[in-house]
């Protein structure tokens, strides 16, 4: 018995020393809109097998709002949207008097107010590469990753995988130790056809093949200790055209307010001359509407969702629950489909899977919020955190084999 225990301890020690002797590499892949239950629902065998070898969370809880840009930026900054700056896919800034929409950071990186993981790496002499990640082309803090591409939705997925593997095969001085990849197909199909559709099933199967191929090549063709982290930014839920609200029917005076339709929320900003009394008057009018399907988010609710004061915080936020949403375009064009961006609930959960030489097998791992991934990646890469963050490094610390 004692011999067995000793042998087990020895194996453990060898694993630890093997992982410690080399600088670890992190490949972070996002499959946009991949809901937490798609692995079983659509039988994603390869992804399930990777999870089996490492850790899989029961769900990855998105930050509010459960939209693509705020969540991708929270994953790579460890910050809530109020602190990293990208508070929705579309929003208004009352100080700048400008609207932001997805990707505007590329033209003006001051929309982002914190340090992404690829810059944290580069500042500490660790090369990074991004074959897409929202806002990864933006020159945040005056720089980008050593290797990056300008976003192109049609860029073939196989080519992205090839490039990721090729980067990891570069001679050591040129080789990145942090690589990100991004795939939008599952989200696109989820929006168009809903989460229960054949099209989402096919998209999941395709991505599952692709990720399986990447995993094989990381094992066989790459001579570096690579840890794969597979995430999604949010889940997906069914919406119906019948439940859509027409923002044009609401008593909002466009002379007084700038309205941003974020589909699951309506963001109402005061114009420069608009008074507090006029904001209150609108609030009362909206509250008095009979049979309204939306809520006016309270200050206490917003605080609980980590929305803090600032020029990007609307005066009023109207929120809805699925299957309702705010319709876009002409009502005759509204269609059933899928969306995300609601308050956190189970359908909004994404996935978190991590496997590699520095990661323990951990089953089950409870659901957790995506702001904790940043300090986890920093730890795997032996990077010091250079700025205060919202994420807590102790949440994923138990997954790390070596540190
Ligand atoms: Zn998304």
TrEMBL record:
Which organism does this record belong to?
Answer: Pseudidiomarina atlantica
Q: Cross-referenced InterPro entries, in alphabetical order?
A: Alkaline_phosphatase_core_sf (IPR017850), Phosphodiest/P_Trfase (IPR002591)
What is the name of the protein in this document?
A: Phosphodiesterase
Question: Does the record's keyword annotation contain Signal?
Answer: yes
**Which Pfam family, just one, is annotated for this protein?**
Phosphodiest
UniProt keyword Signal present: yes
Signal sequence: where? 1-19
Keywords linked to the UniProt accession: Signal
**What lineage does the source organism belong to?**
Bacteria, Pseudomonadati, Pseudomonadota, Gammaproteobacteria, Alteromonadales
**Gene3D superfamilies (UniProt xref):** 3.30.1360.180, Alkaline Phosphatase, subunit A (3.40.720.10)
Which terms in the Gene Ontology molecular function aspect does this entry carry? hydrolase activity
PANTHER family reported in the protein's UniProt record: BIS(5'-ADENOSYL)-TRIPHOSPHATASE, ECTONUCLEOTIDE PYROPHOSPHATASE/PHOSPHODIESTERASE
């Amino acid at each position: 018995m004692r011999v067995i225990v000793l042998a087990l301890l020895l194996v453990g020690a060898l694993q630890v020393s093997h992982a410690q002797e080399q600088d670890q590499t992190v490949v972070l892949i996002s499959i946009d809109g991949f809901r937490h239950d798609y692995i079983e629902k659509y039988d994603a065998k390869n992804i399930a097998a990777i999870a089996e070898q490492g850790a899989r969370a029961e769900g990855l809880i998105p930050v509010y709002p459960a939209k693509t840009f705020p969540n991708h930026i929270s994953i790579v900054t460890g910050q809530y949207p109020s602190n990293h700056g990208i508070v929705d896919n579309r929003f208004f800034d009352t100080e700048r008097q400008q609207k932001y929409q997805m990707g505007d950071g590329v033209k003006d990186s001051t929309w982002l107010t914190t340090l992404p993981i690829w810059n944290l790496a580069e500042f500490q002499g660790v090369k990074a590469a991004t074959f897409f990640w929202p806002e990864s082309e933006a020159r945040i803090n005056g720089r980008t990753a050593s290797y990056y591409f300008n976003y192109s939705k049609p860029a073939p997925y196989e080519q992205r995988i090839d490039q990721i593997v090729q980067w990891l095969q570069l001679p050591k001085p040129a080789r990145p130790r942090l690589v990100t990849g991004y795939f939008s197909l599952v989200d696109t199909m989820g929006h168009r056809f809903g989460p229960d559709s054949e099209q989402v099933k096919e998209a999941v199967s395709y991505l599952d093949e692709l990720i399986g191929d990447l995993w094989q090549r990381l094992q066989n063709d790459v001579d570096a200790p690579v840890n794969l982290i597979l995430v999604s930014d949010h889940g997906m839920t069914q919406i119906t055209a019948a439940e859509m609200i027409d923002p044009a029917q609401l008593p909002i005076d466009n002379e007084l307010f700038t309205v941003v339709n974020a589909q699951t929320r309506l963001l109402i900003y005061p114009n420069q001359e608009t008074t507090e009394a006029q904001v209150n008057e609108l609030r009362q009018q909206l509250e008095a509407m009979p049979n309204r399907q939306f809520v006016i988010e309270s200050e206490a609710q917003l605080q609980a969702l980590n929305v803090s004061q600032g020029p990007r915080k609307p005066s009023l936020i109207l929120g809805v629950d699925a299957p309702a949403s705010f319709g876009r375009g002409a009502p005759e064009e509204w269609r059933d489909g899928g969306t995300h961006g609601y308050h956190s609930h189970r359908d909004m959960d994404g996935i978190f899977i991590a496997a590699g030489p520095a990661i323990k097998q951990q089953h089950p791992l409870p659901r957790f919020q995506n702001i904790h991934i940043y300090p986890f990646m920093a730890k795997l890469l032996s990077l010091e955190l250079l700025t205060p963050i919202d994420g807590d490094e102790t949440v994923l610390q138990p997954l790390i084999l070596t540190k």
